[in-house]
Amino acid sequence: MFAAINRLVAAANHSDVAGIEAEVAPEGTVIDDLPPYYWVGPHAFREWQAVVAGNWKSHGVTAANMTVHEGPLTDVTGDFAYAPEPAHFAIQAGTQKMELDGTLTFSLVRIAGKWQVRSMTWAAK
Asked: What pTM did the predictor assign?
């Protein structure tokens, strides 16, 4: 299950839409701190990534990296999982750097033996 989360985060760090979509369930939900703040449906993660990329471009972001760590509150029940993971986000625009700590919360479902992310929510501390 954590492997699916790590692959999704790595793909998002590289704006790899195909990589993101390889890790998500057919219906997805994303909640993030960028307008419109909420994406739902079969293309939710793709639409969210497009907003993130546009935001980064408009702010001159030259580097961004999210890291997640396995948190103590993960719950797996059968083919369903809830995983609130401590996260660290580092971003650079030119010479300016910003770092944020927060939580990325995932819900996952196991489909045909493969864990897939159904939802992802970001909350900064």
From this structure: 0.93
